[in-house]
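Why does this matter for the project? Reviewers at the last site visit asked to see concrete outputs rather than summary tables. In response, this paragraph embeds two records directly. Each consists of the residue sequence and, immediately after it, the corresponding structure tokens. Nothing has been edited or filtered.
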Amino acid sequence: MLDGRGQKISIGKNVLIIDPTSPEPNRGSFCYMPYLAKMGLQRTCQLSNVVLMEDFTLAGLDEVEKQNWDSVFIALWSYPQIAFCTYLDRVFRGKARFFGYYPIIEDLGLPIARLEDDEILYGMAEYPKNYKNFKHLLLSDCDQHIQGGKDIEVVPLFTSYGCNRGCSFCSAAVNCQHRRLVLSTDDVENMLCECFNQIKWNIHFTDEDFLYDTERAYRILKFATSLTDQWQFIALAHLNTLDRFVDFVRQEDPKVANKIWKCMRLFEVGLETASASVAKDMHKRGDSGVDKAVSVWEKCPVPILWLTMTFFPGETIKSIRETGNFLTKYGLSKEQMTPRLVTNGTRAGLGQFYQAYHGTGMDFSRLRGCGTVLTETPMRLVPSFVPDSFRESMFVRNALFIYTDEFDFYKQVYGLHLDDQDLQKIDGAIGDVPTCVNDLIKKLGIKSSTMFSDICICIALLARLDLIREV
């Protein structure tokens, strides 16, 4: 571990790692850092007792305070953890250091502990040997994409860590300083052998882009399928790297190719939006637009889950409708997804809502200049910001809202607190364009940020389902 000045931290023999509980349901790769830290520190401090406390709450303080810890490292990787972490800083009276999402930690002025590259790499390589030691393995809903859903165990496997693309909305590249740490294929093959021996055959590759190196990915999957063809794999990929990988596999041994395609259950690809104008504002790196996405979808023999984002600055009803129309043709149906997961990859699945992560160049003061900030402790699946561009496009003159059973289904999925009377108010607001948020609040009788958020989600759903029509 390194401190904020890049100097090695004296660890001692009794080490505590705390991973505070967080309601953030879909987390970036940096949420795995407590696990990587435990394994990395066990190697660098072989004589130390390294304890990881997962899902830590106030109830665990009594147990912690009974021991004399030489070092305390606390993970802070999501905004909802901030209040608890600042409290823990006081509890440990300056002894604790923080790691996780570093731009937040730096902004708060908390003492920093940075994992060294060797610690991250070693933690990745040792992960499969330690599955049995952790309470949680896969920290997302992606296990439900594997055949069998909740009834089977899905495990995470890192073959690389970080990303060097640097899209303007993405926190992953910022947190790893736009670098990618890579395990050798020999290391990955050893990890797969460990998984094979443990019969952990349902694997989610948690790389930011598993296919970043086409030949490397092919070699890994070729080796895996030489052990068994009963794997079920999920992998995150970039549109262009998936395109190259599909073309590459087509030129290789057909028997190997068939095994690979059999074992790949799903590719997750960050589409974000089907709107060319919004994608441009996002500074999507290396993407070729919707036409490229259609081309890849047509030739890829594995289902693609298109990951999307809603309410980025510049978003409008038109841009949301464009994404909905794309997903109607090329997305997954709600019948293919478990109920909780229909919020992404389906035509009315709004995906994650835009968050202005520290370090990405869009802080809260800038956001206030282009929209309404609902909270400064955002989560990905709850709107924390609504851009003015969307609010202004909500009021289309001479428009018609159409309600359907599918809309009602998604209204329930998102838990919107809107009844028929509320929906009628939305209908009645069409035709007058409010000049500011206060006018909107007054016209619709909005009494809270929750109701404002629900109305915005409601209209976004109608746009995704192409149920807002100009007449």
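We now turn to the second protein, recorded in exactly the same manner.
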Amino acid sequence: MMSKKSDLRSIAVSITGAPRTFERHPYHLKTQIERISEVDYYFCLSTSDTSQRDSKGGIQDANFTFIDTVIRTAYRPIVYKNVSIPFLHNTKCNVRSNMPVIFDKSNQSTLHRQWETLATIRMCFTHITNHEFNRRMMYSYIWRIRPDILFYHQLPNILHIVLPTFPEGRIGCNHEPCLNDHLAFLPRYAAAQYFTIADDYTYCRGDYNSMLYYIAETLFEKFKSCFTIDKTIRYTLSRPFGIDCARVPQAEKFECLSFPVHQSLHQYIF
């Protein structure tokens, strides 16, 4: 259902991360998002070689020529950047002992792996705030979505949220409830708390304790009890080997496995 005219363009959607499998389902996010409301898109896609390697060790060589055409013609973003942000070691910051260790099958350290994600998110937020300044008006909400996300169930109407809203996380947590960094739906007042996590390391002097081993744990500490988990946001990731249905709850597996892969290059309407 589309929002009322007064709500149009009150949402900024930051699509950030490595594009990886985005080209397999290029119109999927647009279809899902614009079922709820018209939005302003901001694309900041990581292009470094390491960012194309997922946590399972799979590599997806993205077709940036095709992706560029789709984004510019279908999404018509306010900002579209392909970025490769080099990791700069902060010698004045003492990190936890587990941060320099290898994180996953990407063969990057925990700090380096998560830095690429957080620095790209931070850059995109800067573009959003610059546009707000130029138009002399702030967005009401800012969302962050990874480009390789697949919603195997219709995205619920999450307009007019009061608290930062996340899907239910399933990995990287030592507590309940578990947040997940793949998606975030934020009222404007809470956006900076999420989008500027990279600054904690960039401007760190002394001990760096604000980012934990997983970004999900960092988010939990950042927002404490001031957030909500929406279990109706049902999604997974598109991997080089196909749709990753292994991470979804057992009760939702059939729905995930039934996602029409053969229609992935076309608009998918529920």
